[in-house]
Design brief:
By secondary structure, the protein is α+β, with helices and mostly antiparallel strands. Helices cover 43% and strands 24% of the residues. Strands 3-2-1-6-5-4 form a six-stranded antiparallel β-sheet. The termini are far apart.
Length: 883
């Protein structure tokens, strides 16, 4: 080293001349060692070293300590003695001066004559220089330069003293740097702990984000920076905090791989950008940002991306290094945890707010049951809950399979009353799919309904209103702001709201329907001509209609609270009425009885009592009374007239049968005498008289049978007999009639067919009636008698079927077939004859025997008549009486 304009150097003696000088030198070296050891800062070590070696007892005049700048390779002056005009911090560049050798190889170098040494920078006419390396932690960190103006001024003892001083200084420097590193780490740990404490104590997301950025800027000593959080749904970063970067970047979105933060979010590795302006990965969104260097890191929990942080510096001399990156890597995980905790807290708080809003919504909606108000409230709540411009609610018309818009708010048109088919438009689409739908750009959506062509909205979100899988309606929410994009969180909130809205609408519809039904039934009851009264389970009157007041004379105030049976009965009818009431408490009770009006007069009523059951529990009785006084009087008169008619017919039948039997008898005698006398010409006329008498007798017998049934005089004579012989006998009897019309007569029955216990004569009469009719109305066809035994409800029945292939019957003809004196058609009667009594008598006798007769027929294909009778002759309980 050859600093300019040095003072003249004195020669340094290699060894002391006497013991006094040696003692002084030892004392000076001890002071040097003590001063180096006592130094509290690195700069103090350098000053202590050069000043101690400059001590008069040691005698070195020109000394300097240089440290190596790793970034540039320069040797930078830290302390000096004897070089008065050389500034502190002077730099010696690589390739200049002799001291570079000690830096390069870490060994002491001595130049006895600097004029002959390479790289010497001339400054004195002559001189010598010793360069001693300073080493710490096994690497050369600087050099001690000692010079003299005299050539060959230094010896081995000088080298030993200088090396010892350099070693002591290096040890002190190493210890000082270690302490400084530990102190720095302690400061960093404290700063990080303070950061963690501050961040963990704050759960408001916006404040946490700003605090994270402020702490990072302070900790790293940078100009400013940004924090972004990761939007997982859109796979983008969103800048949420910004400080001193030269623009307002909050809200900026960066794709993965875009810009500095986008790059670290994609690679999940930190990044240092020494010159941001020259960096090729710079985002166009930051083209106007004037910063020098950037350091960015991902915010991770494990390997899951939470966000990213970027710190910037505007000073060109500030270059981010490994130490900055280490600090940022220490800070980033704590920031990620703090942000995630705040996000979780905010999310839970938002969910709690949503739940509270939903509960309030449910409370409000459940408190309102008028359908128009509920529909408007549902829409207003949805608009508020999701923070949108407006919307619509539609209910599903199940009969027409359409949606009907019933509530609308700020959509740009009056849409109430609009009908949408399933699949038409946004609401129609969700009504068909039963799935929610987000339409980011409604103007460009191909499914848009022509009914909404004039609606100017940006985005739409729609959901079906369902109860289970049943469609109740649909709700559509819209926003006119292009910056407002519906996302998964909006859809989640709508999906939470929709079922509650569906239930509220359904309840209101049920309530409205119930109100209409109540009004309808109230009107029916109020205007009914039948007296209607409701009772509690004790038989006490709860309400009654005006017809009850008109019928019995008691007004509503007089009747309510009184026992019905005691109110409208006499002592003679009270027990009967109470029996009806007791039965009506369990099942429907019907009857006819006599009741008393308020004025004491009596009337005949047809009554009915029905138990009122709500949710499976009997809660009361509904009683109905219809005045049948006139009806019963007319009925009694009709019954008396009918009885008189039946008695007259029975009497007349007996009176007519006597002369008819005489006519028939005499005609038979006349026929025999005419044949005996050979007057064969008279025989046809006599036979006509005989046939007419037989026909008239048959008619009289039918009338007599009918009158006996109607008068209740016909009796059954029950006996047990084998069924097959009876069948054979009947078939034999009807065979001539079948043969007359060219019919085939058949029978189908099990073998054996078994026995019956019934009236044999009546059974034979029934079969003869049906078989005779079948043969009469069938020509050149088939008549079959079929017999089956069946068991139903623990009883055995015999079914006897007569099937033919005759002219058949229409449904209209079947309707009047069993009426007395009625025939299928007038043309049929004129062609086939008959009075129309045979089937009427057949049915009434069947009913008297505990059975019935039925018919199945098709015009042109024949008929099947079925008699069904109990095999044991007992009529079943509740069997209809013959009428």
């Amino acid at each position: 080293m050859s600093p300019a304009k040095r003072k003249p150097a004195r020669r340094v003696a290699a060894a002391p001349r006497h013991n006094g000088q040696a003692d002084h030198r030892e004392a000076a070296l001890l002071r040097l060692t003590t001063a180096i050891a006592a130094a509290r800062e690195e700069a103090e070590i350098y000053r202590s070293m050069v000043e101690g070696l400059h001590d008069e007892a040691i005698g070195y005049d020109f000394l300097g300590v240089f440290l190596l700048d790793p970034a540039t390779g320069d040797r930078v002056l830290q302390a000096s003695v004897g070089w008065d005009r050389i500034p502190h911090g002077m730099r010696v560049h690589p390739g200049e001066g002799l001291s570079e050798r000690a830096i390069q190889d870490g060994r002491l170098h001595y130049a006895p004559d600097v004029r002959r040494a390479d790289h010497y920078v001339p400054s004195l006419a002559s001189g010598s220089e010793v360069d001693v390396p300073l080493q710490a932690d096994g690497r050369t960190i600087g050099v001690l330069v000692v010079e003299s103006a005299e050539p060959d001024a230094f010896g081995e003892k000088d080298f030993a003293i200088l090396s010892a001083a350099a070693n002591q200084a290096a040890i002190a420097i190493g210890r000082m740097r270690l302490l400084a590193a530990e102190r720095r780490r302690a400061d960093e740990q404290k700063a990080l702990l303070d950061t963690m404490a501050d961040l963990s104590g704050e759960l408001e997301l916006s404040k946490v984000l700003q605090a994270v950025l402020a702490r990072a800027v302070t900790l790293l000593g940078v100009t400013g920076g940004e924090v972004a959080i990761f939007d997982e749904a859109r796979r983008e970063l969103v800048v949420v905090a910004s400080e001193h970067i030269g623009k307002a970047s909050t809200g900026t979105r960066l794709a993965l791989g875009e810009g500095a933060m986008g790059t670290v979010a994609q690679t999940l590795e930190p990044l240092i950008i020494p010159s941001y302006r020259e960096w090729l990965g710079r985002s166009a969104k930051y083209a106007d940002v004037q910063v020098h260097s950037v350091m960015a890191a991902p915010l991770l929990i494990g390997r899951r991306l939470v966000g990213a942080i970027a710190t910037v510096h505007a000073d060109p001399s500030r270059v981010f290094g490994a130490e900055d990156l280490r600090l940022l890597n220490l800070f980033a995980p704590q920031a990620a945890i703090a942000i995630e905790n705040a996000r979780l807290f905010t999310a839970e708080r938002d969910r709690a707010g949503e739940q509270r809003a939903l509960l309030e919504t449910m409370a409000d909606l459940s408190g309102e049951l008028e359908l128009p108000k509920v529909l408007q409230a549902v829409l207003a709540r949805a608009v508020t809950l999701l923070g949108v411009t407006g919307g619509e609610v539609a209910i599903f018309d199940e009969a027409r399979q359409e949606l009907v818009v019933v509530a609308s708010e700020q959509i740009g048109k009056d849409s109430i009353g609009t009908r949408l088919k399933r699949g038409e438009g946004a609401m129609g689409a969700v009504a068909l799919s039963l799935q929610p739908l987000i339409i980011p750009s409604y103007k460009e959506w191909l499914g848009r309904s022509g009914k909404y062509a004039d609606v100017q909205v940006h985005s739409v979100m729609v959901a079906p209103l369902l109860i289970g899988g049943r469609l109740v309606g649909a709700i559509a929410l819209l926003h006119s702001d292009p910056a407002r994009v519906f996302g998964a969180d909006d859809l989640r909130r709508l999906n939470l709201f929709a079922p509650q809205a569906a239930i509220a609408i359904e309840n209101a519809q049920l309530y409205t329907s119930a109100q209409r039904e109540r009004q309808y039934f109230r009107a029916v009851v109020e205007h009914s001509p039948v007296a209607i009264v409701t009772l509690d389970l004790e038989g006490t009157i709860v309400s009654c209609n005006p017809a009850f007041a008109r019928l019995f004379g008691y007004g509503l105030e007089e009747a309510v609270g009184r026992n019905l049976d005691q109110l409208i009965n006499t002592g003679a009818t009270l027990a009967e009425a109470q029996a009806y009431t007791a039965q009506a408490g369990q099942q429907t009770a019907r009857g006819i009885g006599r009741r008393q009006r308020q004025d004491g007069s009596l009337l005949d009523v047809e009554l009915a009592g029905v138990p009122v059951v709500v949710d499976g529990e009997r809660v009361g009785i509904l009683a109905l009374y219809h005045d049948v006084t006139d009806l019963l009087s007319a009925r009694r008169e009709a019954e008396e007239a009918n009885s008189a008619k039946s008695r007259f017919l029975a009497s007349m039948s007996h009176e007519l049968r006597t002369p008819l039997n005489a006519i028939i008898g005499y005609s038979e005698l006349l026929e025999e005498e005419a044949r005996d006398l050979g007057a064969d010409a008279l025989a046809p006329d006599i036979l006509k008289v005989h046939a007419a008498g037989r026909h008239l007798l048959s008619l009289i017998n039918d009338i007599l049978d009918l009158s006996k049934v109607e008068a209740g005089k016909m009796e059954l004579h029950l006996e047990t007999f084998e069924l097959r012989p009876v069948l054979d006998e009947v078939l034999a009897t009807v065979a001539p009639l079948a043969l007359k019309n060219g019919n085939r007569l058949g029978v189908s029955c099990p073998d054996p067919v078994g026995t019956m216990h019934t009236d044999l004569v009546k059974l034979r009469q029934l079969l003869l009636n049906l078989l005779s009719n079948a043969c009469k109305f069938t020509a050149n066809g088939t008549v079959t008698l079929m017999v089956d035994r069946v068991e139903e409800e623990g009883r055995e029945w015999v079914a006897l079927r007569v099937a033919d292939t005759g002219i058949g019957l229409t449904q209209e003809q079947i309707g009047r077939l069993f009426r007395a004196f009625a025939q299928a058609e007038a043309s049929t009667a004129s062609r086939y004859g008959g009075t129309g009594l045979g089937l009427a008598i057949t049915r009434r006798i069947c009913q008297l025997m505990g059975g019935d007769v039925a018919v199945e027929s098709e015009p042109g294909r024949g008929s099947t008549f079925t008699i069904r009778l109990p095999a044991d002759g007992r009529a079943p309980a509740g069997a209809a009486a013959p009428h």
